[in-house]
Write a structure and sequence with these properties.
Largest sheet: 2 strands, antiparallel
Low-confidence stretches: 200-211
Oligomer: single chain
Distance between the termini: 60 Å
Helix content: 55-70%
Subcellular location: Membrane
GO cellular component, one term: membrane
Number of strands: 4
Mean pLDDT: 82
EC number: 3.4.21.105
Shape: elongated
Radius of gyration: 31 Å
CATH topology of the largest domain: Rhomboid-like fold
Protein name: Membrane protein
Membrane topology: Multi-pass membrane protein
Order of helices and strands: HHHHHHHHEEHHHEE
Length: 271
């Protein structure tokens, strides 16, 4: 990401510190207000990014949609979701630095706004969160979480599952003719591809080249498997000839020399 390094050198001092923490805190407050104070989701509905409403003057929707919390009455589910989003976001902030994470986040946010206006589709911040999750799975593939608090599973497998769901939704939308929603489902791919597309291509190319070289090497140099494990240095008897024969290796002989029971004590030591 040389372009991003150049951007950081020029504008690196301009970023929102602890961006993910701030987003999570606002989302948590909105959840409490929505379900414990107001008791309905009408307030949340006024925060969703709806292009038509924005054109009518409700410009706050261009920002507020990123703070919409999970709309479920399960408090445990919300806590776990917000915590995991925080974990993924903060991990990326520490790995990339806060400026680069800001770029990744706001790139996804701007892409969401553009696609929403193109397709005239209402959206929230789900796709931005998903793009952060995919980036986390890419950078920390061996990180393990407990699925349902019981099953340990690595992030790379959850990443594969998320990709499968995205692709399935896109294909389903294309088949049913909902091309606008297909674009919406593709949103998580935009900033991910910008950040990781080139590295993914290089890794795929390197892996393919390595596999081809390995196959060529194996064909050129076939390993000959011996039909036995031990062979007496004196008489040539092997464990394949006599499975009951015990073989020993002489510590006084130079090198790795095996002897059968008859010759282990009756041989001249090899110097």
């Amino acid at each position: 990401m040389k372009w991003l390094d150049k951007l950081e050198r020029k504008f690196g001092r301009y970023y929102i510190p602890d961006l993910m923490l701030k987003v999570i805190i606002v989302s948590a407050i909105l959840y409490v207000v929505t379900f414990f104070i107001l008791g309905d989701t009408s307030f949340i509905n006024s925060m969703i990014l709806i292009p038509g409403k924005v054109m009518q003057g409700q410009i706050w929707r261009l920002i507020t949609f990123i703070f919409i919390p999970p709309l479920t009455t399960s408090l445990l589910s919300v806590v776990l979701t917000l915590y995991f989003n925080y974990l993924a976001g903060v991990s990326l902030e520490r790995e990339w630095g806060e400026f680069k994470f800001n770029v990744y986040f706001f790139f996804g946010m701007i892409a969401t706004i553009i696609v929403s206006f193109i397709t005239k589709s209402p959206v929230d911040g789900t796709n931005i969160t998903l793009s952060i999750f995919l980036a986390f799975a890419k950078i920390f593939p061996e990180f393990t979480v407990l699925l349902f608090f019981i099953i340990p599973i690595k992030m790379k497998y959850l990443g594969y599952l998320s990709w499968a769901i995205v692709i399935l939704n896109v294909v389903k939308s294309l088949i049913t003719g909902n091309y606008g929603y297909a674009l919406v489902y593709l949103l998580p791919l935009l900033n991910y591809i910008v950040f990781f597309g080139k590295s993914n291509y290089k890794n795929t190319k390197i892996n393919a080249t390595s596999k081809i070289r390995k196959n060529k090497y194996q064909k050129a140099f076939k390993v000959v498997e011996m039909p036995y494990k031990h062979k007496c240095t004196i008489c040539g008897l092997t464990d394949a000839d006599d499975k009951n024969m015990q073989f020993r290796y002489c510590s006084k002989c130079k090198g790795h020399h095996a002897y059968c029971e008859k010759h282990i004590y009756e041989h001249e030591h090899i110097k």
